[in-house]
Amino acid sequence: MGTTDVSRLPAQDRLTANERLPAKERLPAQEGLTAQERLTGALIDAGHRLTEPRRQVAGLVAAHTGHFTAADLVADAARLRPQIGRATIFRALELFTELGVVERLDLPAGDHAYVRCDPVHHHHVVCASCGRSVEVDDSGVAAVTADIARRTGYRIEAHRLELYGICPACAGAGR
User: Fold this and answer.
1) HSE toward the beta carbon, residue 82, CA cutoff 13 A
2) pTM of the prediction?
3) Is the pLDDT of residue 9 over 90?
4) Distances 88 to 34, 51, 54, 71, 116 between C-alpha atoms, Å
């Protein structure tokens, strides 16, 4: 599962879920911040210590623009920063997930991966061929969820939607 050069994506695919929200609902602007600064900023904002190993894991995560696995990060660390242990990577990934700046994806084959994202409610469309992931806004899912709650009597507290398919680039390449 590799990385994607985001500068080659169409502009609408580079927008985050936060950028797609109406202006009055957006989180405070983080323009000009790198992906690593957004990850480390989330740690600091939540009151966690920004240790050097966490900063390094944030750098490993930030290097991926598509989905990645914990094993990908372990391999990256072994290649680039051998002083980061496997347990440190897993703990940092769990913490980033709790903070909402990384999200776990359950892949069609039963494996799971992670993707960087904004800490606003959104869903993902994931290419089953190359792993490219695009954040999409609610797109009416809230209405469906409310209808299900009404029909079942459940108080729906959370939901997650992941869509899988073949992205335009892979479809054009015949994958």
Assistant:
1) 1
2) 0.65
3) no
4) 22, 11, 8, 13, 18
